[in-house]
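Structural prep section.
Before we set up the soaks we want a predicted structure of the protein with zinc ion in place, mainly to decide which crystallisation condition to try first. Input record follows.
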Amino acid sequence: MKITKLFLPIALTLAATVTTQAQDVNKLKELLQQAQSEVELLESMPKVKPQPVTSVSTGNGTIALDTLATENDAVKVVLFNDNSWRYIRVRSAEDWEVDTYAKHWDTIKLFPYEDVKLADLPETVVIELVDSLKGYHYPIKGTVRSKFGPRGRRRHRGVDIPLKTGDPIYATFSGKVRISTYNKGGYGNLVVIRHDNGLETWHGHLDQSFVKPNDTVYAGQIIGLGGNTGRSTGPHLHYEIRYFGQTFDPERLVNFENGNLRRETFLLKKDYFDIHSRAGVQDFEDEILGDEEIEEQKKKEEAAKKVYHKIRSGDTLGGLAVKYGTTVTAICRLNGISSKTTLRIGRSLRVR
Ligand SMILES: [Zn+2]
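Run finished without errors. Recording the tokens verbatim:
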């Protein structure tokens, strides 16, 4: 079926043989014959119409014939009809997460993810914030004056960082500008950038914007100047990070004090979208557990579930089974006793 897969090993063997100056001519002839018969075999097989890989455009007329998996799920090899190949990144195996810039792309509407309900989002999602192809730059450095969280009856869906009007605001990651407009709802001059990693960053109260919708931006590009437009008392940047329209505390990712990115791979949990869920020191240690830690945690959780009962006068195994919603057999198994064992008053029996 896959022509390239069959032919590639032979081609590679041939190349290796030729580069060792064809010491064994007979071997080479044999290989050539083998290759020839492979080609004949292939030609006799029904032809498979090449399926272009939609995410790859070479721009020089070559057609992608096939994609091969690698050991890394996030990387695939694409083989082209001119015998060239290249690695491509697979952003995610999840259908709803691909097409970052194709789906829910709206340069007018502030909230284009209306049809994506919170319930549809996964409990956790791993987001690769940066890699060798994608950089990071702090949006601005400074002390967070107002944090993510409830603010009286309102909800503060971002962080506020005071600045001097005219201070540069940088794109946090590479991406594409979705919104650049004056927002009457309170944001003032607002720039929304959607990033390759699927996150959106929102920048409010800007004095000026240097970008327009559909502009491609790189991490660290100055997208505008900080200011005091919209519902703002004093120059500051209102900065939000959203995932499929849902906000979470930007301090989970950015240390605004020193400008550093707190992590390269982010385990985004659904709980974080809760307005009361703030970045805390403890989060950063236990977010991604190792296998051993997970095992340990499971044991702890199991242990926490154990229920004991202190035998009192009149208790029977059958009665306890009913009381704790279990069976006599289960209680016997947990305690290594038989159903005929006499229950001594005062003894603790594990019932779950
Ligand atoms: Zn704010």
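Observations: The chain has three domains: 3-89, 118-286, 289-352.
Flagged for discussion at group meeting.
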